[in-house]
Amino acid sequence: MSVVRTVLGDVAPEALGLCQTHEHITCDQRVSRIPNDNMVLVDEEKLTRELNRYYAAGGRAMVDVTTGDWGRNPERQARLSHATGVHIIATGGFYIEPHMPQLVWDWPIPRIVDWMLEEFHEGMDGTDIRIGLLKSGIAAGRIEGIERKGLRAVARAALETGLAITTHTSGSRRQEVPGGNLAAYHLEVLLEEGVSPTQLINGHTDERPDIGFLSELCELGCYIQFDVLGKTHWLLDETRVDLLKELIRRGHVGHILLGTDRCTQDELYPELGGLGYVYLLESFRPLMIKMGIEEDDIHQMLAVNPGNALGVNL
After folding, report:
1. The pTM is what?
2. How far is CA 36 from CA 27, 78, 117, 256, 264, in A?
3. Which domains does the chain show, CATH number per domain?
4. Cα separation of 95 and 92, whole Å?
């Protein structure tokens, strides 16, 4: 039986509904080695308001890709899900090196894997709230050192659980990477560990996209994620739609996921100029329709693919 593991329990993949697969709901970078007072989403009243706006726009689920070392708060996630009706999927694994917990340095890989398995089977941070996704974050244009160690641990946890792995790579370094994304390097390590390409969600592919490279990833069975929608300092949204149209034309609609990566107060809260979680559904979706993407394809990307990508067999 395939299920998606949410903070309030398991649901059938087809019951997930419209789902943005790369967001931050509750995070706190003040706890990291490089504090940032803007990357702090802890105000439950404001977060409830923004999730209610998202639900009213048609959103029914959201992946919170905040890991434990970046202020993930499972009890807050559960309260917000209960209050708004939005399914929330919590994330294990690791963000980039400055945010990794000390245990990654201190423990051997098998012990790190056991810790992640406990988060999947038992619960996170002393709760019974369980993760539904794993993450690998890379800060540079290569995978090395402690980040490689973390990735190998994540790969082995993914093998044991069947969970998907979502990735982060830092956009300012992607000019060093053929194809504009570290996906090839992630995939190399994962294949060495025996992980299927179908378990890999390549994040931030719409910052420095190479259409040929993205097509190759889809052909291998990976998911590619356009997840910084509305952040036009990377790419115009009209260009993103053109890329999506071409990927769909090539037969890859079943491998595309969408999100907006709201991780700061001034990106999320409208009183600070933020576009909010609703941007994808209220602005980017109408743009896709206007530029000729069919409703069935939009439904596939937003409502079918997330369940397929996040589903695990128990």
Report:
1. 0.97
2. 11, 25, 30, 31, 9
3. 2-313 (3.20.20.140)
4. 9
